[in-house]
Write a structure and sequence with these properties.
Length: about 325
């Protein structure tokens, strides 16, 4: 007679539906608590990188001063001029039409771009240089290195040139504008034996402006407010809807001379970037940023700091002018 087989029931443990829902809810709460901290940490890292970029550019301003004996100029007479070359060599300030962004290239390890790459004519050298995105010119909180391709007529060195070419953008601008303009006939040395006569151009009165003056070089003796109290570069306000397009005040790019792409005004209060799909305007006179609390700036002594959006307007204006004689308290 065979033994009677006995079945043994093994009880297994498992989550009930209610327990599973509770666990999911707890995980969701933890993620919701951690996400702002993670985002804040990422923004802190991006802000630090932005400050490093500005410090690098501030050091380049100082190195340019040591080498050329003047600070980089704001270029000019306006944005319709390519970088100036003479016999294939980049012209130094104050004979350089391109602005401060181009003039500092040799001092941020971008000499090859400054020289125009392997191009064989001055016009092609200039077109090459303006189309190369420079990492140090971009705030990582706003955008990666960006270019926009479009056609443009440049007055010099190839009058009438109308060639589609990339234009590398930038996120930083010099404190160069002032509120007083004068009209009249002006001449600017070209640096190659040519004098360009300019009729009825609006030349900004440099009194009280920053260290990057239009077409003329500034020396430390002209910074009577003190180099530790004079802002030279800061982030410019942008419309985030048009960051990759041919937008007024954000198109010619980092190398252009005397244009809102590269110069701004501290007389206006600071504001953060904005999103307006109905307007391509980028608020060209104002400093601002994609940081939530303020903008990063660098002073003439190469020190950097974040200025909060709430800074008192008169203090900001005095900060951006080299010789107004006014005092202000750093926030």
């Amino acid at each position: 007679m065979s033994p009677i087989a006995k079945s043994v029931r093994v009880r297994t443990s498992a989550f009930t539906l209610v327990e599973l829902l509770v666990v999911i809810a707890i995980i969701g709460i933890l993620i919701a608590l951690l996400l702002p901290a993670i985002q804040a940490a990422r923004e802190a890292g991006r802000r630090t990188q932005c400050g490093n970029n500005l410090r690098q550019l501030g050091v380049a301003f100082q190195t340019h001063l040591d080498a050329i004996r003047i600070y980089p100029t704001a270029g000019g007479p306006n944005h319709e001029f390519l970088p100036s070359f003479a016999s294939g060599k980049p012209q130094p300030a104050p004979y350089q039409h391109a602005g401060w962004g181009y003039q500092v290239l040799p001092y941020i390890e971008e000499t090859a771009i400054w020289r125009g790459g392997s191009a064989t004519t001055d016009a092609e050298r200039g077109l090459y240089a303006i189309g190369q995105p420079i990492g140090a010119m971009f705030c990582p909180s706003r955008r990666p290195p960006t270019t926009t391709t479009f056609s443009k007529n440049y007055l010099h060195p190839a009058p009438g040139i109308n060639k589609s070419a990339p234009h590398a953008k930038n996120d930083y601008a010099a404190s160069s504008l002032s509120t007083t303009s004068i009209n009249g006939n002006k001449s600017m040395p070209e640096g190659v034996g040519i004098v360009i006569n300019i009729n009825a151009w609006n030349f900004t009165n440099p009194t009280g402006a920053g260290v990057s003056k239009r077409t003329q070089g500034i020396r430390p003796k002209h910074v009577t407010d003190g180099i530790s109290k004079t802002l030279i570069l800061g982030e410019k306000r942008m419309n985030r809807q048009y960051l990759d397009q041919n937008t007024p005040n954000d198109n010619e790019g980092y190398a252009c001379g005397w244009n809102h792409d590269t110069v701004r005004h501290t007389v206006n209060d600071l504001k953060p970037d904005f999103d307006d799909p109905n307007s391509g305007i980028t608020d060209g006179d104002r400093f601002g940023s994609s940081h939530p609390t303020g903008i990063m700036v660098v002073f003439a002594d190469t020190s950097t700091m974040m200025i909060p959006y709430e800074i008192e307007t008169l203090g900001l204006r005095r900060m951006g002018e080299r010789a107004d004689g006014g005092q202000f308290q750093l926030p």
